[in-house]
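Each field is set out underneath.
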Amino acid sequence: MVEACKRLHIMLIALDRFTIVLGMFSTLVFLTLFLFFCTSSISTLSTTIAVDGGDAPLFPSSSDPLLAAVASGDDFPPLKNDNLLRAARGEPVDRVPVWVMRQAGRYLPEFQEVRAKHDFFEVCRTPELACEVTMQPLRRFDLDASIIFSDILVIPQALGITVEMVKGVGPVLPEPLVTPADLERLNATGSIERLSYVGDAITMMRHKLEGKVPLYGFTGAPWTLMGYMIEGGGSKTMSKAKAWLTDYPEASHKLLNLLTDQIVDYLLMQVKAGAQIVQVFESSAEHLSKEQYLTIALPYLKRIRDDLHKKFADEGITPVPMTLFSKGAMHSLPEQAKIGYEVIGLDWTIDPEEARKLVGPNVTLQGNLDPQDMYKTPEELRELVLTMVRKFGKHRYIANLGHGITPLTPVESMSVLVQAVHDAL
């Protein structure tokens, strides 16, 4: 009897321990299942929460095709039409390449539809929208390049200057730089990171292009950006900015140097993101005399090229062709041709044959039809384009306008321009 009681006691102890272990195991299983279902729910939730009436991810997932395109970096589709890049490098081309400044713009009704729903800078800052408007002219015309939709004034924005796009007016900077003390308002720290949306759009666009044509990146030049930042917008005289040059020479060069540093890093970011050629817009060169252009603008334009190439070398990046467009500075073409840019853009005020004599045989020319000629009849426009292209010739030439296409340009004129360029030679 005593022995039986002992055995029963031992069995009860074993059963109690088994129950404890079983309870611990059950708890572990329960916690595992709980965590699994929570994770699955969050994953599902992240892909189905509605934003602005549509389904958009709350937590971006690498399975999103647009984000995957950006994440894939340099894994780009092979380029099918490289005529423009070959022209920039001075290599033989199958046909004269053509693109147009502001080719993604207000003359297109589909662009107007996008702008009716979205603020200008919202389009710039939203890679999907920027890519959509960048692609629009390529769907209509047989162009040989695309240029990412953005604006030269994103650099002042990134430095802390408010820029507004006012309908019927254009860019407005409500708090411009008035005295050198205002330079303290500029915050260069993290400015390129604040422009990452441009890089995202470039990378996304490279994938959307599927290698159809090369993609331009671009920037405003130091003097042009300085003018906007001081004038508070566009100006027909640049009187305030020019007054800075004489009244505050030290502060002027401090600002120009700051902008040059920003531009170099901004272009480097664009090339890393996938830009295959870049253009520097010195759109306000026309407000400087030749002496001023050579002492105020050109040294910084040269430094942009030199510093960017140094960064290319330091980081093992293959250099991309660079284009300089100094509107109104055709008086200084020989000097422009000597500072290292592969392509020099021409405005409409100079004859192609004269321009070639001034720059020599080793620089590619881009341009230079008067944008107003786009309002002529198709027959007149075609003859003007054929004459222009034949003056430039097929070697080291990229066809374009002498400035940006204007908002009321007939869409048909773009078709005539592109076809005439390709038919000319």
User: Anything to note?
Assistant: The longest helix spans residues 2-46. Confidence is low (pLDDT under 50) at residues 8-15, 17-73. The first strand starts at residue 50 and ends at 51.
